[in-house]
Write a structure and sequence with these properties.
It comes from Mycobacterium paraense. With about 230 residues, the protein is of the alpha+beta class. It is about 60% helix and about 15% strand.
Length: about 230
Amino acid sequence: MIADLDRHGTETTVGLRELVGSGARQVAGCQYAGITLADKTKTVSNVAATHRYPMVLDAIQNRYGEGPCLEAVWQHHVMHVEDLNVDRRWPNYQRQALEQTPIRSILSYELFTDNGSMAALNFYAEHPHAFTDESLEIGGIFATHVALAWSIMRRQDQFRSALASRDVIGQAKGVIMERFNLDAVEAFELLARLSQQSNTKLIEIARSLIDSEHPLKRRNQAERGA
């Protein structure tokens, strides 16, 4: 699955849930909302949702590779399902959605495409023809807001991750410098060689080295070997 909620930073996950909840309240006729994430292999996951129904509908789309949210993602436009009872564009999705949920109206907006990942913001209602022209307009404005906010949050997550990685690599360099009497540049070059030779990410090499130096871990290993 390309993206469980845990793939995103905790703050980003919370932020997206808050945005989706706000959208559900502001778009006239909407009862539930969610964000669908998909990739070019048609693998689908739910990033945030106000209720289990959006998650169920994303699971159906993942199973059959069809549905309005995927259509919005792939075709780069807005999808409006006025009455799922009579909309037969996605027969497998329609059948399962009618059986498993009371959802009858759907609005889906493309959010972004990035490195093979694509996302859509979706609004749902239990009644046919729940969304008016005003709903479509407000939904589009809100989708633009979510896309911009998500982009900012993702960059913040990447920055925090980069800082954490830098600290870990710095600690690993310190271990190597002390153990092998090397300077900082030589220690980093050794880490880089180990990474290349083992085909392992540098940050993972660094974490393994730090873990092996941790006194509690050494004690546990010694106890297991006794």
